[in-house]
């Protein structure tokens, strides 16, 4: 299977949730059937299945009950970059420029979405539409059932990394909300984010202010606010209807790699080895989570606990309110790139991603 060299390990750890006491976490299961590093994972809405996408060009479906592989999804011609699992179908995207839809019961490929001309970075299934972003500088909207492109979003001057969607019913009071078909927000290495009208493909707003690549974004749909994180070390808040920059969050000393928005708090993971918690409506930094020995590459909030994944090959659990470190989870060899929490059991899953070889502290 063609692809880039993978120095990541090939295992997925299923670990116990953090308790009240500190100490090390223990792995309940290790899922190690992939023959290349795992790039992403996605849980089904009911928490009973897990989808992983790998450097080996395949995706796998797993039972969260026993860690057994339920289906092997084969067909991509290069590594799988991202995946999303829905109730009836799984979706994967790849460096082979395509997106695939799979039957979760049989593992059969149901649809191949062709049109991008470079690596597909991210996909998002929402409102019976499939959205994608690519190194070809475009984002696209597709019919989930037909596999045809329904809209192309052109205007970024470099690759499109991240995206988020706000449905028409999330835009009460917005002029012509139904007519525009909702809004798609994209972030790019050209230093901008853009807001697009899904129905027409027109650029509604360009959000300018960052001086580096936009690596991550999250939406607060009730307030029509987007939060973007960048290599310029800042987070910025924007009104996606007017395009106005509302606030700048400035205390990080390295690239902002990941964001999580929970209960009007923004959590940001950075290359400066910290996570910070900010008040979304004021931009005030109220808490810093230290203890990482490398960049913070993944965040997941669950039931008062903040889980973090880092380039030091450790996952950590913090009390989100006090900032106290509860547990450190060891087992991976390289950077942890994604964390998911399986409701209602609250078992965290994490994985690591392809990286250049690096040393990690013991």
UniProtKB/TrEMBL annotation:
InterPro entries the record matches: WD40/YVTN_repeat-like_dom_sf, WD40_PAC1, WD40_repeat_CS, WD40_repeat_dom_sf, WD40_rpt, WDR86-like
Entry-linked Pfam families: WD40
Record key words, sorted: Repeat, WD repeat
Keyword Repeat: yes
Keyword Repeat attributed: yes
Residue windows of the WD repeats: 31-72, 73-112, 113-152, 181-206, 207-248, 249-288
Gene3D superfamilies cross-referenced by the UniProt entry: YVTN repeat-like/Quinoprotein amine dehydrogenase
Listed name of the protein: WD repeat-containing protein 86 isoform X2
């Amino acid at each position: 299977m063609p692809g880039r060299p993978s120095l990541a390990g090939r295992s997925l750890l299923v670990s116990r949730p953090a308790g009240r006491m500190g100490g090390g976490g223990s792995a309940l299961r290790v899922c190690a059937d992939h023959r290349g590093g795992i790039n992403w994972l996605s849980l089904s809405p009911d928490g009973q299945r897990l989808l992983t996408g790998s450097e080996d060009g395949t995706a796998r479906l797993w039972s969260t009950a026993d860690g057994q592989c339920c289906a092997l999804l084969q067909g991509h011609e290069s590594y799988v970059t991202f995946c999303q699992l829905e109730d009836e179908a799984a979706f994967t995207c790849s460096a082979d420029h395509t997106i695939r839809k799979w039957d979760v019961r049989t593992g059969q490929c149901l649809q191949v979405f062709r049109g991008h001309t470079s690596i597909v970075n991210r996909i998002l299934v929402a409102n019976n539409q499939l959205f994608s972003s690519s190194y070809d500088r475009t984002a696209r909207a597709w019919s989930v059932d037909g596999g045809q492109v329904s809209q192309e979003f052109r205007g970024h001057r470099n690759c499109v990394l991240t995206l988020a969607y706000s449905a028409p019913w999330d835009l009460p009071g917005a002029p012509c909300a139904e007519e525009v078909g909702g809004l798609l927000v994209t972030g790019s290495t050209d230093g901008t984010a853009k807001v697009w009208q899904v129905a027409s493909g027109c650029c509604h707003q360009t959000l300018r202010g960052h001086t580096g690549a936009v690596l991550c974004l999250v939406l607060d749909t009730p307030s029509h606010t987007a939060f973007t994180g960048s290599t310029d070390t800042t987070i910025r808040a924007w009104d996606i209807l007017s395009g106005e920059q509302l606030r700048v969050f400035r205390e990080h000393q390295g690239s902002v790699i990941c964001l999580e928005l929970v209960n009007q708090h923004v959590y940001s993971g950075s290359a400066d080895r910290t996570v910070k918690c900010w008040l979304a409506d004021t931009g005030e930094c109220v808490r810093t989570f230290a203890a990482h020995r490398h960049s913070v590459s993944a965040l997941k909030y669950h039931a008062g606990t903040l889980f973090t994944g880092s380039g030091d090959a450790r996952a950590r659990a913090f009390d989100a309110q006090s900032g106290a470190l509860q547990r450190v989870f060891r087992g991976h060899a390289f950077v942890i790139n994604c964390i998911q929490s399986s409701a209602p059991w609250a078992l965290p899953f994490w994985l690591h991603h392809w990286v250049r070889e690096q040393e990690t502290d013991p």
